[in-house]
Amino acid sequence: MENIILCQSCGLPLGNEEIKGKEKNGLKNDLYCKYCYEDGMFTKPNMTIEDMKDIVSTQMKKLKLPIYTIQKAINILPSLSRWKNK
């Protein structure tokens, strides 16, 4: 089974370099996607896990994904680095 690296903020798969966020020096960050992390910092630093759950749910609904897939994605969030100790 293939190891899939997920954004440690939103859970988006980081399967290609284009989706990865960047550090201040322009290098790609291997932990976070470009939607969550840019220029060496979180794009929404004051976001709560509840905010993230709403965003993930809304974006996945726009893609017309099944509710069980959406729920699984939301259930993963508390285990990600950004939220683990909050």
TrEMBL record:
Residues 6-84 form the Putative zinc ribbon domain. Pfam families: Zn_ribbon_2. This is Zinc ribbon domain-containing protein. InterPro entries: Zn_ribbon_dom_put (IPR025868). It comes from the Bacteria. It comes from Flavobacterium fructosi.
